[in-house]
Hints:
By secondary structure, the protein is α+β, with helices and mostly antiparallel strands. It is built from 10 helices and 13 strands.
Amino acid sequence: MVEWDHDVRIVLEKNENYWDADSVNLDGVQFEMVDDSSTAYQLYEDGTLDIVDIPADMMETLVDSEDSFVAPRAGIEFQRFDVNEEPFHNKKIRQAFNYAIDSQVIVDQIIQGNENVAHGFVAYGFLTPDGDDYRDHVEDFYAYDPERAVQLLEEGMAEEGYDELPTVTLSYNTSDQHSIVSQAMQEMLLTNLDIDIELENSEWSVFLEAQQNVDLQYSRSSFLGGYNDPINFLDVFTTNNPMNRTDFSNEEYDALINESYTEEDPDARFELLYEAEAILMEEAPIVPLYFYNHTFLYKPEVNDVVRHAVGFVELKWASLD
C-alpha cells in the first residue's frame, strides 16, 4: 500500500519481492471510496472506474447487460424468530410463515439481481466430496404454498388455544430495501394468513444489540460465509452459539454438528450435515428468503478477477487489455 487518503482512496502497487511476482499482471490497483452507488456508476460511465457495484435502483436494467458480472456469493437473507416468544414458540406457526412467503416475488420484483430463492440455509457454492454443489444433495424446503400455510396456522393456533394470534412485529434495520421487503412480507402475510403484522425499524447499532440479546420477536437478518465449508452456516444454530439469536436449541441437531467435527470420512461427514440442515428447516427457527450474488459491472478490458463464493476477491491474475 503506497497511499491511503482516508475516506478518499487506497493505492496499491505490485510488490516485486512477492514470491510469484511474475504471475502478477497489474502494476497497481486504485480503490476509490465512494459512498453513493449512483456516483460510483457515473465514474464507471466516464471511464474513471473499471469495476463498480450495480446500483440497487438500476439492478433490473443493468444486471443482464454486457458489462455485468453475476456469480453466487456464500450468503443469505433470512428472518429469525424468537422461538421462546409467543406465538413463535409453536413450530407449526413458524412453518406457516415459511409457506406463506413467496420469496420469488421478493427476488424478481424488489432485489432484481438474479438471486436464487433460498429453500434451505446453506448457500450455493459449497462443494461435496464428489465435486457437486451441496444444495443439489438436499431437498428444497418450504416451497411457496399458501394453502399449506393456512392449515399449519390453524393447527398451531388450535394447539395454543388461540382465537386470535398475538401481535406480531417484524423488526428490521433502517434501509430503503429492507423497508420495501418488509412491506412485501406484511402484504403476503395479510393476504395468505389474514395476519396484519406490525413493522418496526431502528438504526443498525440499536437493531443489532436487540437481536443479539434475543429481544426481537421476528426480525430480518443476514449471514455471510467466512470459509469454504457448509459447517460455517450450520453451526450458527447450535445451542448457545452467539450467532444463533433465536434461542433455538435441539439436542439432535447439536449432536449431528458435533459428530461432523470428528467424522474423518468426507462422505459420511456431509451426510451428517444434510441431516442437520433437515432438522433445522423442520424446526423452522428461521425463514430463508434468498441467497446473495456478487453483482458488479466490469469494463470489457478487465480480465481474470477471481471472486470466491465466500466473498473474497483476488486480483493476482487480473489484467487490463
